Amino acid sequence: MNSFEQKILASYSSTTIMAGKDEAGRGCLEGPLVVGAVILPKDYFNPAIKDSKKLTVKQRTMLETEIMNVAISYAIETMSVTMVETLNPKQASIVGMQNAIDKLTVKPDLILTDAEKLAPSYHYQAIIDGDNLSQSIAAASILAKVTRDNLMLEYDQTYPQYDFKNNKGYGTKKHLSALQKYGITAIHRKSYRPVRDLILKNNVTDK
């Protein structure tokens, strides 16, 4: 991962500052979308850092602390359910990424994204399968994933019947069954098909 980034940096000046960005929760049926942005030292390499989905909860938690400690700068942006619904998931991801970049205390010269395009004012490279190729993107994915998962644990305290602590808002069999049985909550994304179909079929309102 670090060597992949070094090859990219080789075509830039030695002073180029690079940031990685990624999001978590884009495909979930409920809850916010969370974006992470991180600038790691150029000589930093940690083989344990990889796509957050390939790590255990314990591994992600330990790496989150490590990344926050070593990062030159990092930022986390939370896009609410309302913003995701208003903008649509793709645009919410883009806006969240740009907001996170703007929050960094050190401004990057180059931004690596996981295949997502940003506004022309941002100098970026969209890397297909970026969270498996770029250490910086993978680190950003870890920050976003841990932050969002912790939010889901909080939501589980309010809505335990939906099993958010395990499904993290994704449309598992148990989650979909709970939707049928209990209806939707205020944090469900009403434009997403399983939720939207339930609303249309039963004329339900959130709780």
TrEMBL record:
Enzyme class of the recorded protein, top EC level: hydrolase
UniProt subcellular location: Cytoplasm
PROSITE patterns linked to this entry: RNASE_H_2 (PS51975)
Alphabetical list of CDD domains matching this protein: RNase_HII_bacteria_HII_like
Domain of life per record: Bacteria
GO cellular component: cytoplasm; ribonuclease H2 complex
InterPro entries: RNase_HII, RNase_HII/HIII, RNase_HII/HIII_dom, RNaseH-like_sf, RNaseH_sf
Domain RNase H type-2: 16-204
GO molecular function: manganese ion binding; RNA binding; RNA-DNA hybrid ribonuclease activity
Major place of residence: cytoplasm
Enzyme Commission number: 3.1.26.4
Cofactor requirement: Mg(2+); Mn(2+)
Co-factor remark: Manganese or magnesium. Binds 1 divalent metal ion per monomer in the absence of substrate. May bind a second metal ion after substrate binding.
GO biological process terms on file: DNA replication, removal of RNA primer; mismatch repair
Entry keyword annotation includes Lipid metabolism: no
Catalytic activity: Endonucleolytic cleavage to 5'-phosphomonoester
Residues that bind a divalent metal cation: D22, E23, D114
The entry's keywords: Cytoplasm, Endonuclease, Hydrolase, Manganese, Metal-binding, Nuclease
Cited function: Endonuclease that specifically degrades the RNA of RNA-DNA hybrids.
Family that this chain belongs to: Belongs to the RNase HII family.
Stored NCBIfam families: PRK00015.1-3
HAMAP family linked: RNase_HII_B
Protein name, per record: Ribonuclease HII
